[in-house]
Design brief:
One of its GO terms (biological process) is cilium assembly. Residues 1-25 form the signal peptide. Keywords: Membrane, Signal, Transmembrane, Transmembrane helix. The chain is α+β, with helices and mostly antiparallel strands. It has 23 helices and 32 strands. Strands 17, 20, 22, 23, 24, 25 and 26 form a seven-stranded mixed beta sheet that branches. Strands 27-28-29-30-32-31 form a six-stranded mixed beta sheet, sandwiched between helices. Strands 15, 16, 18, 19 and 21 form a five-stranded antiparallel beta sheet that branches. Strand 18 (376-385) and strand 19 form a beta hairpin.
Length: 986
């Protein structure tokens, strides 16, 4: 039973897992279909988003969203659902035009193919009485003179006046010519399209172009009506055709040539006295100098940051025309009038919030450009109020990226004077690519990139109280082909931007001057530091090492200079851009901020080199632990065969190992906690929301409205906010560590000095050939290798001032010093340490040679250690007449410049310090260098990824890596220099 229960449980469990699998594997994907996919006897069920078959004797409606009765059937019932009822008409009957009745033909014989009643040309079909009752049979009534049937053939409409004038009816007899639905007198159609004229499309892949129905149908009539009669609509139509070919006047510039010829003929009469705007015609081309057009100071609006003010919005208006030239109205550009990307009204209108660098991108199904969008043309204006309080419209120039002159895209050139500014533009053109009026366009052109560029007025680099120059509208057109994009599920990328710029020459010049002056001072100070290093190294002449040191010192100082300048620069933009009331500054554009980005990268490189130099110096520093302990007796029993009874008792090495281990722990110790630094920075930026202060809109808030539009993050502002927060947290950590932690918790450096005193060990450090630091750790009790009872007694006597003070000089407590020694000292030092610098094989040979001479086994490295201990002890105790020193204080300038004004010719110098000078050979004394390096690394990573979290992670990993490498290299160097086994260093 138990087995069956277990087996049954496993079965149920298996079913349970299977059911879970089924649930998790449910496929919710549905086939993609749009209205245009439903043809023939199907309709688009928009509740299920698919094509569905109509019933018998039914066909899809014209809009594709329902079903109609097929030809020869009438509608019996329609309840509003998806089902309708159709009934067949008799063989001699046809369906009425509204589809609701059957009616016989007056002739008695309907068309067997179309199932309609035939009428002669010029006649209309009548099926109902005026009161709506059905006639006994369908009738054909002729239209009277000057009228003709409409497109549906159900109503007589008046002919165009040109036909009436030519023939008193709707005919256009010779020698009259018909074009574009108008009858012209002989000779009026002076211009016709060349027989080989084709509209260019890049998608075709060659220069053959495309025979456009729209141009063939309308060009000649539009040109003639505009030229002869100044017909407003015809002139608009002709201008639209010029815009369709990007204003180009090359091989396919017939329409633009015609416009220019007519415009020049109207030159005696201009709209608003503007030379480029002919009366009764659109304004297409600018002939003035580009720089002059873009620096006009007519617009007097003083734009402000207050969103409740009328002066906080760009009031853009557009005059809209359809493809055939009909005027559709003058509209505000709000609510996405010029934006193809769909979005909320609030976010679409944010594009015109002055000062907000707006950017919108989306992908739109390619088929929408055929099925959804209509072709329309726009002339854009900015609305403003002049000094007299009159409302004005100022035309906005357009820069079409696709414009060509002699095959060259001149509007893509960097030289502004080569540009050709124009006026009219379109968003979608699905007309010029048609082969027939009722066929979909084979090619469609659309505005893939639109940018409004707003420039603040300035005088000698100073902004003029929130006023702007005329905006510039930049447009780039792209193409789609019916063959590749209509049937397939492709999409098109759309970009819409509003950018702001101003003359940045003043700011760039100030930054360049600051960098130049401060860099020169840095190079001068680097020269002084390298000269000080040369003297500390005992060099008489400048050699290659001195030159390298000059480069290293200068790079470190340049890193500081570059950071200081770019930090102040970013802080300026953060404060003045976000806190201004009237617009006097706008953020630099991407191109303008390229210099700032380059300076950030250079600062990081300089500081990285500085850190590498710091590594090289600290990991090659000479360090020796002087043991002052002396033997306190003789052996009463031999320990091994090499030590005989009666020899002096050996001195314990553990004190030296212990001090060396403590020094090893200090090497990578820092004043700040990197993890806490980064965690607090990220908390303030991402959680509190200070990152929102770095957007390109002028009003910053740490609690943004999720429904509102906010600009993208700006590189300069992100650097300023991140650097400011990072520095503030670093300073707070330094203040806490210096004034709280070191005073009331633990002072690591002073504890190490105290440890040296208790261990009777002094530390001698040479960071350069003749320069270094000395920690005087000689015990005031004379010995420290003792038991606990004696140690406690020593501490008790010291507390009661029963012994001397710990300082190097009598009656002083000064234990730490800087040392500057003569060359003779270094020569002896190097000679003693020579065995330690040999390779393992060389040491073995030296040991063997020494053993052969003395007859006993000798370790030259141990002898060198003992000799060095005696040498340094004798030096400290003034035991050598020709190698001596004097103790003195540094001058104020020597402290400030970190150099010495003395040359140690006969005697060395031992300078009193503040108790922490030896921290220069460990990380502890270079907190600012490491903090600045990490800050710049944080900002450079954010510069690349625009992600503070990733920047924090990378910076933390890099900091841990640097500390680990520094600890490992420092441990290796310490073991090598002091002969302490590396295994004892943890």
């Amino acid at each position: 039973m138990a087995t069956q229960s277990v087996f049954g449980g496993l079965i149920y469990f298996s079913f349970f897992l299977a059911s879970i699998k089924v649930i998790h594997c449910q496929d919710y994907g549905i086939p993609f279909a749009v209205v245009g996919d439903c043809t023939g006897e199907t309709f688009y069920n928009f509740a299920e988003l698919r094509c569905q078959s109509c019933g018998a004797s039914q066909t899809g409606s014209s809009d594709g969203l329902s079903c109609d009765c097929a030809s020869g059937f009438k509608l019996v019932s329609d309840s509003g659902g998806i089902d309708i009822t159709c009934e067949a008409c008799a063989n001699n009957e046809v369906t009425t035009s509204d589809g609701k009745n059957c009616i016989p033909c007056e002739s008695g014989v309907p068309n067997p193919v179309t199932r309609t009643c035939p009428c002669n040309e010029g006649e209309i079909t009548v099926e109902y009485e005026e009161d709506g009752s059905l006639l006994d049979s369908s009738q054909c009534l002729p239209c009277v003179a000057t009228t003709e049937p409409d497109i549906e053939g159900s109503e007589c409409v008046f002919c165009h006046q040109s036909f009436v004038d030519a023939s008193a009816d709707c005919d256009c007899p010779p020698p009259y010519e018909q074009s574009g639905g108008i009858c012209f007198s002989s000779g009026d159609l002076l211009q016709t399209l060349p027989s080989d004229y084709n509209v260019p499309f890049e998608s075709i892949g060659d220069d053959s172009g495309f025979a456009s129905w729209f141009f063939i149908e309308y060009y000649s009539a539009a040109e003639a009506l505009c030229r002869l009669y100044k017909n407003l609509t015809a002139c608009q139509l002709l201008s639209n055709q010029c815009v369709m070919v990007d204003y180009n006047q090359d091989d396919y510039g017939t329409t633009c040539d015609a416009y220019i010829e007519i415009r020049d003929g109207f030159s005696s009469s201009n709209a608003y006295d503007i030379p480029d705007w002919p009366s009764n015609m659109p304004w297409l081309y600018y002939t003035d100098d580009v720089e002059q057009v873009l620096t006009e100071s007519t617009i007097q609006t003083s734009f402000r940051t207050n969103t409740s003010s009328e002066q906080s919005m760009l009031n853009i208006f557009v005059a809209e025309y359809n493809a055939t030239g009909s005027f559709l109205g003058l509209h505000p550009a709000e609510n996405g009038k010029l934006q193809l990307c769909p979005d909320t009204t609030e976010k679409l209108n944010a594009a015109y919030q002055f000062g907000t660098t707006y950017s919108s991108s989306c992908t739109i199904p390619s088929r929408s450009f055929w099925d959804v969008y209509k072709t329309a043309f726009f002339d854009s204006y900015i609305h403003y109020v002049d000094l007299n309080g009159n409302e004005k419209l100022y035309p906005i120039p357009v820069l079409v990226d696709n414009y060509k002159e002699n095959g060259v895209f001149v509007n893509q050139m960097a030289v502004q004077r080569d540009w050709q500014l124009t006026r009219r533009f379109f968003l979608v053109d699905n007309v010029s690519g048609k082969t027939a009026v009722d066929s979909p366009a084979r090619y469609v052109r659309y505005a893939s990139d639109i940018e409004f560029q707003i420039t603040l007025q300035s005088e000698e680099g100073e902004a003029r109280n929130g006023k702007i120059y005329p905006p510039l509208l930049k447009i780039k057109y792209s193409e789609l082909s019916q063959e590749n994009d209509y049937a397939g599920a492709t999409s098109a990328r759309i970009n819409f931007k509003v950018t702001y710029t101003m003359d940045q020459a003043g700011g760039q010049r100030a930054m360049s001057i600051s960098l130049g002056v401060l860099s020169a001072l840095a190079a001068l100070y680097g020269l002084l530091k390298s000269n000080a290093w040369r003297r500390r190294s005992g060099l008489i002449y400048i050699d290659i090492k001195t030159m390298f040191k000059f480069v290293a010192f200068t790079f470190g100082l340049l890193g500081n200079v570059f950071f200081a300048v770019i930090f102040c620069y970013s802080l300026y933009w953060l404060l003045f851009f976000k806190k201004q009331d009237v617009f006097n500054v706008v953020l630099p554009t991407r191109i303008q901020e390229s210099a700032f980005i380059a300076y950030v990268v250079m600062a990081f490189i300089f500081k990285g080199f500085d850190v590498l130099h710091l590594f090289a110096v600290q990991c090659t520093t000479d360090i020796f632990l002087i043991d002052w302990e002396r033997s306190r007796g003789r052996l009463v029993q031999a320990n091994d065969s090499t030590v005989s009874k009666g020899n002096q008792a050996p001195i314990s090495i553990w004190r030296t190992y212990f001090v060396a281990n403590e020094w090893n722990e200090l090497q990578a110790t820092r004043k700040s906690h990197v993890g806490l630094q980064l965690l607090t920075t990220l908390f303030l930026l991402e959680v509190i929301g200070l990152v929102h202060l770095t957007t390109t809109d002028p009003v910053g808030s740490v609690t943004p409205d999720p429904n509102a539009y906010y600009g993208n993050y700006d590189v300069i502002l992100r650097f300023g906010v991140a650097s400011g927060i990072y520095l503030i947290i670093g300073i707070v950590q330094w203040i806490f560590f210096t004034f709280v932690y070191e005073r009331f918790v633990e002072d690591s450096l002073q504890n190490f000095v105290d440890l040296c005193s208790m261990a009777n060990i002094s530390v001698f450090i040479l960071s350069a050939n003749n320069y270094g630091h000395y920690i005087h750790g000689r015990s005031v009790h004379g010995f420290s290798d003792t038991n606990m009872k004696e140690m406690r007694a020593q501490l008790k006597r010291e507390e009661e001032n029963l012994v001397g003070q710990r300082g190097l000089l009598p009656s002083t407590d000064q234990q730490t010093f800087e040392v500057l020694l003569q060359n003779k000292f270094r020569e002896n030092y190097d000679r003693i340490l020579q065995p330690l610098n040999l390779t393992r094989a060389e040491q073995q040979r030296a040991n063997q040679a020494q053993s052969n001479r003395t007859g006993t086994k000798v370790d030259t490295s141990l002898e060198a250690y003992a000799t060095m201990n005696k040498f340094l002890s004798a030096f400290i105790d003034h035991g050598m007449r020709d190698i001596d020193y004097i103790v003195k204080d540094k001058l104020l300038f020597e402290k400030l410049l970190d150099m010495e004004f003395y040359d140690p010719m006969d005697k060395g110098f031992v300078f009193n310090d503040d108790g922490h000078s030896f921290d220069q050979v460990i990380f502890f004394g270079h907190e600012s260098t490491l903090l600045l390096f990490e800050l710049l690394l944080f900002c450079v990573v954010d510069l690349i990824f625009q992600n503070y979290l990733m920047a924090g992670i990378v910076t933390f990993i890099a900091s841990m890596f640097v500390s680990k490498i520094r600890g490992s290299l420092g441990r290796y160097n310490l073991a090598k220099k002091t002969l302490v086994d590396e295994r004892f260093l943890i």
